[in-house]
Amino acid sequence: MTINQFMFAIFAAIIIIFSILTVTSRRILRAATFLLFVLVATAGMYFLLRFNFLAAIQLTLYAGGIVVLIIFSILLTSHIAEKLDAPSWKKVIPAFLAAAFGAVITIITILQYDFPKAIVADGDRTNIREIAQSLISTEKFGYALPFEVISILLLAAMVGAIILAKKRKD
Amino acid sequence: MFEGVPLHWFLITGTIMFFVGIYGFLVRKNLITLLMSLELVLNSVNINFVAFNKILYPGHLEGMFFSVFVIAVAAAEASVAIAIIINIYRRLVNIDVEKISEMKY
User: Fold this and answer.
1) Which domain CATH number covers A19?
2) A95 and A39 in one domain?
3) Model-level pTM?
């Protein structure tokens, strides 16, 4: 077992266990904390794949931004000690069957597909200069247009969130 | 340099995470927990993008850029969703999806 496989096993175990806990925990604040663990383990997986920039984005934006936002909204809308009602069996059994069925079919398909052998990467880690140049380039493998579109989307989301959450004077 | 972990392992991890998110989305009733299940789904897709990028096309960066865009869309979606949730809570003092039926009819 190489060090990569060992680290992968740890991260995958954290991801799977805590994502199951996220959707089954009945205390909502704990569910948010488990979600944080899942997101941090995913960042660890990006580090394992040597995507340093993406891992940094994951840590700052997801783990730092979205989870804090979720925790704030939990504190605003529910009591800390409050326990959610357990979902009824009528709901759990079909949902579980649907999810398990889908997962089994997808995993069988993945295992049957013969992916080409892993090519060993030449570059060690992603180069930040390369990322920046692709983000503003308009040539092949350039992402200037999606970058601008996503900036407009973020601006629109920001304005929309402020207007929606603002107190009305009526 | 990256070796040792086959692509299948990443895809299976992503699949399990995706369907756990789907399960949560079907079972949960609180709007914020629904949002958390959605984040799980989006995150699992990112793992797939990145694994394909690194293992099948190591010289390129497409998968990474798609993940960055997915993260940005997730952030936008979370902020708007939470604004809506807080607005609903202010009007109805409740964020349980089964009890919010005022706009239904």
Assistant:
1) 1.20.120.1200
2) yes
3) 0.89
ipTM attached to this prediction: 0.90
How does pLDDT run across A130-150, given as a tens digit for each residue?
888 888 888 888 888 989 999
CB contact under 8 A, A124 and B16: no
* CB < 8 Å to A124, chain B: 1
Of A95, A106, A115, the CB nearest to B26: A95
Q: Which domain holds residue A68?
A: 3-126
User: By CA distance, what is A100's nearest residue in B?
Assistant: B19
Residues of A in contact with B2 (CB under 8 A): 4, 48-50, 118, 120-121
Q: Are residues A71 and A81 in the same domain?
A: yes
Residues A134 and A115 in one domain: no
Tell whether B34 is covered by a domain: yes
The whole-angstrom separation of Cα B66 and Cα A146 is: 10
Same domain, A140 and A116: no
Q: Which residues contact B61 (CB under 8 A, 6 or more apart)?
A: A126, A130, A131, A134, A141, B53
Name which of B80, B54, B40, B101 is nearest A62 in CA terms. Answer: B40
pLDDT tens per residue, range A39-71:
999 999 998 888 888 999 999 998 888 999 999
B39, B53, B66, B69: best mutation site toward chain A, by most A Cβ within 10 Å? B39
- Inspect the interface and report whether the beta carbons of A153 and B20 lie closer than 8 Å: no
Q: What residue numbers bound the domain in which B43 lies?
A: 30-92
Mark yes or no for CB contact B82/A70 under 8 Å.
yes
Cβ–Cβ below 8 Å for B17 and A38? yes
Answer yes or no: do A105 and A161 share one domain. Answer: no
* DSSP string computed for B28-65: --BHHHHHHHHHHHHHHHHHHHHHHHHHH-TT--HHHH
